[in-house]
Amino acid sequence: MKSNQILNFVKFAACMVLAIGLSGRALASCGDSLSAMAAGATASIQSQSSLMQQDSESSKDNAEHASIVGLWYVRFMVGDQTIQEAYQIWNAGGTEVHNPNVDPRSGNVCLGAWKHTARRTYKLAHRVWSHDISGNFTGTVHLSETLTLGNRGNTHSGTFTLNIYDSSGNFVTEVTGNVTGERISVD
User: Fold this and answer.
1) Terminal CA-CA length for the chain
2) Taking a C-beta distance cutoff of 8 angstroms, is the pair 105, 130 a contact?
């Protein structure tokens, strides 16, 4: 009987940690109590809500979408050449998930963090583990974007920089260009 109570408590504690960890932004402090982690997640969500409200109040042409939060179809271009298309999810907690149209054997899910920097403007820091088609680690890619919302929040445009590093962390090359996006919404 006592072992069942302990097992149930452990399950409950694990679920609480998971729920709090997924509810806002990642908090990587091992010594924080559950209540401190919950307070940090709540503050992050309130901060993002405040920024979305500020965007909405400050622009009459932004009636429907005041934030980058949502699902997007994006194109990365160098000059007139499209180098990648992707689906991108910008989450309210300040995280981003990127699913590019590339061979999944080399890795096609990437993660990032974003922040609101000015009226209708957002910055993204995005990291990618790079592998060849045999599964061998080849390095990392650091993607940075600066975007501005347009068309009532249904489009965005801006610039990107890709910094590519080898498996030892040595800088290899940089690629810069433009990025555009169209919001995907339920009809």
Assistant:
1) 53
2) no
d(CA 83, CA 115): 25
Q: Phi-psi region for residue 4, left (φ > 0), alpha (ψ -120 to 50) or beta?
A: alpha
> What residues are paired with 100 via a beta bridge?
86
Q: How far apart are CA 148 and CA 7, in angstroms?
A: 50
Instruction: Name the residue with tokens 């679920």.
Output: 15
Number of C-beta neighbours around residue 183 at 10 A: 19
pLDDT tens digits, 17-74: 333 333 333 333 223 322 333 334 334 444 444 554 544 444 444 444 479 999 999 9
Which value, to the nearest 10 degrees, does the dihedral of the CA atoms of residues 66, 68, 70, 76 take? Answer: 140
Query: Under CATH, which number does the domain 70-184 receive?
Result: 2.40.128.30
Q: At what angle do helices 34-57 and 2-22 cross, to 10 degrees?
A: 30
Q: Which residues make Cβ contacts (< 8 Å) with residue 52, sequence separation at least 6?
A: 66, 67, 69
Distance of alpha carbon 44 from alpha carbon 91, whole angstroms: 12
The residue extents of the domains of the chain are 2-57, 70-184
